[in-house]
Specification:
Layout (H helix, E strand, L loop, with lengths): L2 H26 L9 E4 L14 E2 L8 E4 L7 E4 L3 E8 L7 E4 L4 E11 L9 E5 L7 E4 L4 E2 L10 E5 L11 E4 L12 E4 L11 E4 L4 E2 L4 E4 L11 E4 L4 E8 L10 E4 L4 E10 L12 E4 L4 E2 L2 E4 L11 E4 L4 E3 L10 E5 L11 E4 L4 E3 L3 E2 L1
């Protein structure tokens, strides 16, 4: 090979090496190419913020890492102040009570196992996470097949998640999102809560189930009403092919606030291992009562209780079915007995009782329905 050919070959080689290096750098930044590490909260930083490197050992968490909180370090109340994507967050056997807040402009996303509360007899019974209100609202998201207390352990303790309502007009409430095939089905007495706003023009907290997400029979969902004149209540939404079991409790607004709301859309279904409780209004403000609606092609198959109002001029709790939604007990074992809808009458003069409304082409089907 002559000198010219050698020079040309070397030039080609250098270009190939450069391309390979660029490819490796790009791959290093791609999700799934880095090996997840286990990172511990040390609480030895100068602030309660997750972005403070001094709070972590051996380093700040990177996307996909598994984070562990255990023992009794400083900053038991701490703040996720920038976007974080974790494989899991585990509370160890000796973990004290931690209160983890996702700031009103930040997001905490779980992509693998999700949250595990493994505290033992020397630790806290419950652990708490909050999606705070803010300009865009803090968000806690369970993606892929993540969830709460997944696995075979029967000793995992509860995890309480709260979507906070806003207290400043124009701000949005926090959001808790279960998407893809995420679930709470293995969780033990976990509570999801959507708080209402405390002032008119502010957003309430919101819980969203979408795609094929599932909530289990031992999970309780509480949706608060607003706590000020005209203040929005919290909201929970089941979309797409989601499935809901467990207790769904919707509370009335307070001091003129609006009641909690639950909405089922798409092909969302409920299971018989659960119940819905709609509180009656506690003020004459229109909408102070709690209400649950089933639309599209959703299916209701559990016990519902619509409570009476507690004050004259207020409406009772309300259940509405529209579109082609159904109250359908087909296929449910007869040994389980009836699945009734109770519309409770008022006990206060002028207070209205609970209501169930069927609209459009919604219908009742099955041998165990009772209203």
């Amino acid at each position: 090979m002559d000198e010219r050919s050698v020079s040309k070959a070397r030039g080609i080689g250098r270009r190939v090496d450069a391309l390979l290096l660029a490819l490796l750098v790009a791959m290093a930044g791609m999700p799934g190419t880095a090996v997840a590490a286990t990172i511990f909260w040390s609480g030895t930083g100068f602030s309660e913020r997750w972005s403070d490197a001094g709070n972590w050992s051996p380093r700040l968490p990177a996307p996909g890492d598994d984070v562990v909180f255990t023992g009794a370090p400083a900053f038991a109340t701490n703040t996720v102040d920038s976007n974080a994507a974790l494989g899991s967050l585990t509370f160890g056997a000796t973990a004290q009570l931690f209160n983890i807040h996702v700031a009103g402009s930040s997001a905490l996303t779980f992509t693998a196992l999700g949250i595990q509360n493994r505290t033992g007899s020397g630790g806290s019974i419950r652990q708490q996470l909050f999606a705070d209100a803010g300009a865009t609202g803090g968000t806690i998201t369970f993606a892929n097949a993540s969830g709460i207390n997944l696995g075979t352990s029967q000793n995992d303790r509860p995890v309480d998640l709260t979507a906070s309502g806003a207290s400043v007009a124009g701000q949005l409430g926090g959001r808790i999102v279960f998407q893809d095939t995420s679930t709470t089905i293995s969780s033990t007495f976990t509570t999801l809560r959507a708080r209402g706003a405390s002032i008119a023009g502010a957003g309430g907290g919101e819980i969203v189930f979408r795609d094929q997400a599932v909530t289990g029979g031992s999970t309780g969902i509480v949706v608060d009403g607003g706590s000020g004149s005209g203040a929005a209540g919290g909201r929970v939404t089941f979309q797409d092919n989601t499935h809901a079991e467990g207790a769904l409790i919707l509370l009335a607004g307070e001091a003129g606030g609006l009641g909690g709301r639950a909405t089922f859309g798409g092909l969302a279904t409920t299971g018989f291992l659960g119940s819905i409780d709609n509180a009656g209004g506690s003020s004459a403000t229109s909408g102070s009562e709690a209400a649950t609606t089933f639309g599209d092609t959703t299916r209701l198959a559990l016990t519902v209780q619509n409570r009476a109002a507690t004050i004259a001029g207020a409406r009772g709790g309300r259940l509405e079915l529209s579109g082609t939604a159904s109250f359908d007990t087909t296929g449910i074992a007869t040994g389980l007995g009836a699945l009734p809808i109770y519309n409770l009458g008022g006990t206060v003069a002028g207070a209205l009782g609970g209501t169930t409304v069927f609209r459009d082409d919604s219908f009742i089907r099955g041998p165990q329905n009772a209203i």
